[in-house]
């Protein structure tokens, strides 16, 4: 009888790379795109003309900032404006500025895993909007949210922008939303940006730019495995490939092996064989419509109270409450 030796891993990254590349079909989680190089590439993506998501959400904030912030401040009581995964805060600053111009009492609490990101955001806020009270929260979303929750009973408005939830399968999104719901009090709000179903070509173009920035972003996971796990992936031996299913609204990114090849991952003591044209599924970017959003909300014990769209209906921000 063959004996299975249980492999032990030092990090979750090692385990997920090991399991994903031993699976059939092969897969790697997109959360590992984001190291220093990946963060920079994603910033570049957000400035690409094809990546309409950022501009559409900015347009929503510029157009509807008065109504959005009035809803945030509903009862006139001080509140905490908590942002999950704040990044450079470019979009949020529009709302922060509006809130402070209206003399609304709030504290901005951006949560990010990276202290570096938080430090950069905090110093830019001190420069640009010195009157805004800022309390950065380093940690994972839920670690930080749980910490904030036990502080005092202050009402919360939680922001989750940029269609970040779209990188989760519906099933995972529901687990995530239920967790947020569980940490919300009755009067708290959850403000979420969700990319909408649209002309499939527009979506394919956004994830398959001619300059190849998205391809670099996708391949960054291989670069990271090379560096952190002592592997020898040749990035030019893989092709970035995007598909979009207009029925389900799911965009999927793949890395496709251009030839039969073996990659060695020393740190995992693993040789990974690829057939020619074999795939690694790396990311989903889900697109939504109102019915799907209402279904997700219902599954998670939330309800949609308001929504805001850009002129072209490319993107929407929804307000959820418990
Ligand atoms: C972060 N996330 C919402 C982006 C998206 O649109 O799925 C990541 C991305 N992947 C390729 N381009 C941008």
From TrEMBL:
<protein>
    <submittedName>
        <fullName>L-histidine N(Alpha)-methyltransferase</fullName>
        <ecNumber>2.1.1.44</ecNumber>
    </submittedName>
</protein>
<dbReference type="InterPro" id="IPR017804">
    <property type="entry name" value="MeTrfase_EgtD-like"/>
</dbReference>
<keyword id="KW-0808">Transferase</keyword>
<feature type="domain" description="Histidine-specific methyltransferase SAM-dependent">
    <location>
        <begin position="13"/>
        <end position="321"/>
    </location>
</feature>
<dbReference type="GO" id="GO:0052706">
    <property type="term" value="F:L-histidine N(alpha)-methyltransferase activity"/>
</dbReference>
<dbReference type="Pfam" id="PF10017">
    <property type="entry name" value="Methyltransf_33"/>
</dbReference>
<dbReference type="InterPro" id="IPR051128">
    <property type="entry name" value="EgtD_Methyltrsf_superfamily"/>
</dbReference>
<keyword id="KW-0489">Methyltransferase</keyword>
<dbReference type="InterPro" id="IPR029063">
    <property type="entry name" value="SAM-dependent_MTases_sf"/>
</dbReference>
<dbReference type="GO" id="GO:0032259">
    <property type="term" value="P:methylation"/>
</dbReference>
<dbReference type="InterPro" id="IPR019257">
    <property type="entry name" value="MeTrfase_dom"/>
</dbReference>
<dbReference type="InterPro" id="IPR035094">
    <property type="entry name" value="EgtD"/>
</dbReference>
């Amino acid at each position: 009888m063959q004996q299975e030796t249980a492999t032990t891993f030092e990090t979750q990254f090692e385990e997920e790379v090991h399991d994903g590349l031993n699976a059939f079909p092969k897969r790697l989680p997109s959360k590992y795109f984001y190291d220093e190089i990946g963060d920079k590439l994603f910033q570049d993506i957000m400035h690409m003309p094809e990546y309409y998501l950022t501009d559409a959400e900015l347009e929503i904030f510029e157009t509807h900032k008065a109504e959005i912030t009035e809803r945030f401040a509903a009862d006139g009581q001080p509140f905490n404006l908590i942002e999950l995964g704040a990044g450079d805060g470019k979009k949020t600053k529009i709302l922060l500025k509006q809130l402070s111009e209206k003399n609304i009492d709030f504290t901005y609490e951006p949560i990010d895993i990276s202290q570096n990101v938080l430090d950069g955001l905090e110093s830019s806020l001190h420069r640009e909007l010195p009157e805004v009270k800022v309390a950065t929260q380093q940690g994972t979303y839920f670690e930080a949210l749980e910490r904030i929750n036990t502080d005092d009973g202050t009402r919360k408005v939680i922001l989750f922008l940029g269609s970040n939830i779209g990188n989760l399968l519906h099933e995972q999104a529901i687990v995530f939303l239920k967790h947020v719901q569980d940490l919300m009090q009755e009067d708290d709000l959850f403000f979420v940006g969700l990319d909408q179903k649209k002309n499939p070509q527009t979506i394919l173009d956004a994830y398959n730019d001619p300059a190849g920035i998205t391809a670099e972003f996708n391949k960054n996971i291989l670069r990271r495995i090379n560096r952190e796990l002592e592997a020898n992936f040749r990035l030019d031996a893989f092709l970035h490939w995007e598909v979009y299913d207009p029925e389900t609204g799911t965009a999927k990114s793949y890395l496709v092996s251009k030839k039969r090849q073996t990659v060695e991952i020393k740190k995992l003591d693993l040789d990974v064989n690829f057939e020619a044209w074999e795939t690694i599924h790396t990311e989903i970017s889900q697109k939504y419509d109102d019915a799907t959003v209402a279904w997700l909300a219902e599954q998670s014990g939330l309800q949609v109270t308001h929504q805001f769209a850009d002129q072209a209906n490319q993107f929407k921000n929804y307000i959820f409450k418990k």
